[in-house]
Design brief:
Blueprint (H helix, E strand, L loop, with lengths): L9 E2 L2 E3 L22 E3 L14 E3 L6 H6 L9 H7 L12 E7 L5 H11 L12 E5 L11 H17 L4 E7 L4 H14 L2 E4 L1 E4 L3 H4 L9 E5 L8 E2 L7 E10 L6 E5 L6 E7 L12 E4 L2 E4 L6 E9 L2 E8 L1 H15 L17 E2 L29 E2 L6
Parallel strand pairs: 5-7, 5-8, 6-7, 8-10, 10-12, 12-16
Antiparallel strand pairs: 1-9, 2-18, 3-4, 9-11, 12-13, 14-15, 17-18, 19-20
Helix pairs in contact: 2-4, 3-4, 4-7
Amino acid sequence: MRRRVTGTILGGLVLALVPFLSSAANATPQAAPPVSHSFHHSCATARAGVANCDALVRNDVATSETALRAALAAPSGLSPANLQSAYKLPSSSAGSGQTVAIVDAYNAPTAEADLGVYRSQYGLPACTTANGCFKKVDQNGGTSYPKTDGGWAQEISLDLDMVSAVCPNCKIVLVEATSASFANLGTAENTAARLANVISNSYGGSDASDSSYGSYYNHPGKAITVSSGDSGYGVEYPASSHYVTAVGGTSLKSASNSRGWTETAWSGAGSGCSSYNTALSGQSGLTGCSRRAVADVSAVADPATGVAVYDSTAYQGQSGWMVFGGTSVAAPVIAGVYGLAANAASIDNNYPYTHSSSLFDVTSGSNGSCSTTKWCHAGTGWDGPTGLGTPNGTGAF
């Protein structure tokens, strides 16, 4: 599970590899039943001064693109159409002129090709370097890419695919940090702010102070999303930064109600009260925390109701179509919604607090035990695991 490492960065990613479904490409999958299969981390063991992404990978199943097509089957996991339906998004008509940056560590050499497979599978328009939709840079904005890391390559594919799913008309910039240190990821963040309207970050470390790292995330006129973590109740940085939108996680299931979906708080979503950073003005009187509380909003993150992702950079013998969970799903989903809304230049991260009527309030579920109930239990209005709720269109962004 998630390890906390002071001064280092961990990715907010959980991955389950499950069999593909023999169904239409946009069919709504049912939640997977509980399983007792073994898992392994998708990144190497941390060493001094270095942190990992936090992917958990099922050891027993992987589905190659060749096998999927031979079976005339659709990938398992939620599709773009599922996400667009669940969150009532204008994905086919909005997002043009917006650029979403993805900040991750290390190099994914197959990122553009894998993105092409994902978008082709679901009938999304091509997003390539050649047509000007996709751009890949190193942390300084050049092309001296860092070394390849298979675990972080999975994280990168997840992030690219989720932005594509939600905002297929947005341009995408992938910024690859040299390593997973705060300094290198922060340098990449500053580069992303020069190149994009919206920035997504699917990583986190121990709660820290904006006085140490806040300059990396203080970019007025840019919407910056950060995953809240995958170890349940507890606060991580940079989700706890005063300058970002902290994104919690839910379990998302199809339902026979007017919405067509139900959501509960995901047990793994990070939440709580920062020990260091100033509360958002919009949080006054809502959170029971005198400092910055996490999260602000949320989206699907439960790997049991996870999303389809394609990645061909083999890692520990696994590649192809996979099902991912973790708040690494939720952060780029919300980044894509910011792209659809196209308001980043004129709003800040307090905006959802004055537009919460445009969110689905998540009122059940928990991510652990805590001294102040709303920090770890979903309920009416703001709560830690799900924040103010999940997108109901783009009005809260």
